[in-house]
Amino acid sequence: MSIDSNLKIDNSIKEDDLKLAEMEAESELSLEILEKRKKGLLRTGYTTGTSASAATKAALLALILSQTHNTIEVTLPKGKIAKLKIAWIKYSQNDQSVTSAVIKDGGDDPDVTHGAEICSTVTFTNEKGQIEIDGGLGVGRVTRPGLGLEIGHAAINPVPKKMIEQVVLDIAKSILEDKGIKVIISVPKGIELAKKTDNPRLGIVGGISILGTTGIVFPYSTASFAASIRQGLDVAVSLGTTVVVLTTGGRSEDYIKNIYKSLPEYAFVQMGDFSGYTIKQCSKRNLKKIIIAGFIGKLTKMAMGIKQTHVRGSHISMDYLANLASLCVNSENIINDIKKANTARHVSEIIIQNNIQNFFDLICKQVYIEMYNHSNKSMEIEVVMFSFEGKIIGKYP
Q: Residue 346, class by beta-carbon neighbours within 10 Å (0-12 exposed, 13-18 middle, 19+ buried)?
């Protein structure tokens, strides 16, 4: 029996026409959030870039006009106006600089920077007409190529930087005829927060990034996750690697790192639930080889041809796994047990208890076939399945 021709299942999950920015990881959401979303009650929030722009505007108004504001309006990249609260404003001892802070409000999105102080300190300089924007405490520094930012510079992305520059021009254009203005963005808890982000992996050290393309954070959007995948791949490619290891999460990454110890840190990219999207991104970057590592649940979905493993309706078919097992063992009782299993993990327990050979390898082979075809047969692919204790139980080739 040919695995790839007979073990496909019919599913209606579309691949490339899914909008990555709107995909949602259903099982990660609480019942309260799901109910809010159904009723259209989820709040949008603002990016660290928008927060930094508002803090800069408040600090400038205080420095130039001696005005202090409780709220500040800033213009977002697409022209909309956002109103943000100012947490506090402080003058330096010599009144030559002012620092303002905004508490970053991510709305109902669970971003790690939600609630963080985003601060901006503005100072006059002698560099006539110059606007200098840099990062201070808690804003990361770029140490690797591939991020679209200069090595050694603060991790302030182009759109937020442009927003901050525009704020300065709007308020201080006449002053720039005689002086320069320096803006330092800082995040007091940024070093601690950065440990919960991909920044260390990407070579951004010392803090978080100041991000945002629209200025708005959409609740439970996966656009940021998709962006981190692209960014991770860009860093890997720019540093010359031709082999990338894609994992479904942190635990599978830890396990596979113990196998491929010679590969650098930046060669490991967490694709999460976006296997199809990530494979396409790898193909676009002309990578020679990818290694896919995960556990039975996510890998089974990938073997079934599901390219976004958290999208609604992407359930594991026990019949699929039973059909696969029938290629490895001739036992009606075992096949029926698999059909009645509760989860993919339950199936793996049945397989291991009955010492059935090649079952996990066959899942890996089907993942290989799906991903190889999805990449337009452009890359060498290897698939590794781990037990939950970290032992390799399946592999293909």
A: middle
